[in-house]
Design goal:
Helix 7 (143-153) crosses helix 8 (169-182) and helix 11 packs parallel to helix 12. The chain is elongated, with a radius of gyration of 35 Å. The chain has 395 residues and is of the alpha/beta class. The chain has 14 helices and nine strands. Residues 241-255 have low confidence and may be disordered. Strand 5, helix 11 (292-302) and strand 6 form a beta-alpha-beta unit. The protein has helices at 2-17, 20-25, 29-65, 68-96, 103-126, 128-137, 143-153, 169-182, 211-218, 235-244, 292-302, 320-327, 346-352, 376-384; strands at 201-203, 219-223, 257-263, 266-274, 281-283, 308-310, 335-337, 364-366, 391-393. It has two domains: 22-65; 118-393, no CATH class.
């Protein structure tokens, strides 16, 4: 009796489970949890998309009302604040759950920052002679230096904006000096600075530009007939005119560089002259893409009034000594920096330059970390014979 009743109950239970209504309403417990998780994830994704859309709309509105550099500054500030908040959330998350980032990641990021800082420190150290003892020992930056540094770091933001060309010359000079430390000049950035003709100092240290770009930017070609009336045969006449009035850039010293062109069997003689009549200081330190001998010929032929020149770390063993011999024709030089040149030994200096005749205006010769010197005192004594208050810096 009991067995028959149990069998009847089991049969009824099987029939109720196999009915379509039961199958449609039944959901396993783990599947219910999974569906609820999917619903929450869907809602979160929707909120994230709306937030991204709102941020993008706000950024577009700001971008339309601000110039690109100002917009970049605001967005960078926003990104830094967001990164700080993200870091705080990440620190909190690590306290709660989850593993810490691999040590290799932390070391790689730290190593990259340290290498950049070391590179900047090295550049500052190598330009101490150019900056002078006062500037190199001063630890606090001026407001102008801080602004120049900021512009130099973000210089690519200004490439597409024409108003940069209208910036005063002295500000461009400061920015160029900051570029040589934090973001060296390239072919891409050069057009921002090659429209000005009022430079008194041109700091192109550590740049990657080549000689052709250098010439196209700061020299121009004119026909010889246009120079007949303005040709100056003596540098002293040019210097006298410079004291009284500004030298127009069509005035040149001695024999300008000839550039001849063949045009239908007729030869036209053109001259290469500088666009920078007021230029007195030129820093080409560690500009390795500029050849020594062509550069030296160009400077001596077109920039006779240079008073400060740095070729630190430039030229190779073959071109270096001959380039130095050519540069000795810059008779108005007061400061010459040949530091970090392995080819610049004391014997090279004494053999390739006639110190009794050339560079008589020289006051300071900087030769830090040059090639092997047997006796610096011999060089110092030789150069001091015909020069007042001469200094030789070897350290």
């Amino acid at each position: 009796m009991v067995k028959s009743s149990r069998q009847k109950f089991k049969q009824k239970l099987r029939k109720s489970i196999t009915t379509p209504a039961f199958r449609n309403n039944y959901t396993p417990a783990d599947q219910k949890n999974h569906e609820s998780t999917n619903q929450v994830s869907t809602l979160l994704d929707k909120l994230r998309k709306e937030a991204r859309f709102n941020n993008g709309t706000a950024s577009a509105n700001i971008s339309s009302t601000f110039p690109q550099p100002a917009f970049n500054y605001l967005m960078r500030e926003h990104a830094e604040r967001e990164q700080q908040e993200r870091g705080e959330r990440e620190a909190m998350r690590q306290r709660v759950s989850g593993p810490a980032p691999p040590k290799s990641w932390q070391k790689a990021r730290k190593g990259k920052i340290e290498s950049t800082e070391l590179l900047i420190k090295d550049r500052k150290e190598k330009r101490r002679a150019w900056d002078g003892p006062t500037l190199s020992m001063r630890k606090t930056l001026t407001l102008l230096e801080i602004c120049s540094k900021t512009v130099a770091i973000n210089i690519k933001s200004y490439i597409s904006y024409p108003y940069f060309a209208n910036m005063p010359t002295h500000l461009k000079q400061c920015i160029l000096s900051s570029l040589s430390i934090y973001n060296p000049l390239t072919e891409e950035i050069l057009p921002l600075f090659n429209t000005d003709t009022e430079y008194e100092e041109l700091d192109l240290a550590n740049s990657t530009i080549n000689l052709e770009s250098f010439k196209k930017s700061f020299w121009k070609i004119v026909e010889e007939k246009d120079l007949v009336d303005s040709l100056v045969k003596n540098w002293e006449d040019l210097a006298d005119q410079d004291e009284e009035t500004d030298i127009i850039y069509s005035r040149i010293f001695g024999k300008p560089m000839d550039i001849t062109n063949d045009d239908d069997d007729s030869r036209k003689t053109n001259k290469l002259i500088s666009k920078l009549p007021k230029l007195r200081k030129l820093n080409l330190g560690f500009a390795h893409n500029i050849s020594g001998i062509p550069l030296s010929i160009l400077l001596v032929a077109t920039l006779p009034l240079l008073t400060h020149l740095s070729i630190a770390g430039c030229f190779n063993r073959e071109d270096g000594p001959h380039s130095l011999r050519i540069l000795s024709g810059l008779i108005n030089l007061l400061v010459l920096d040949i530091s970090y040149c392995e080819w610049a030994t004391d014997q090279i200096l004494l053999q390739f330059i006639n110190w009794d005749r050339d560079l008589k205006s020289l006051r300071v010769l900087v030769a830090v970390n040059c090639g092997s010197w047997k006796d610096a005192e011999v060089v110092r004594k030789k150069l001091s014979e015909n020069r007042r208050s001469f200094e030789l810096w070897t350290e």
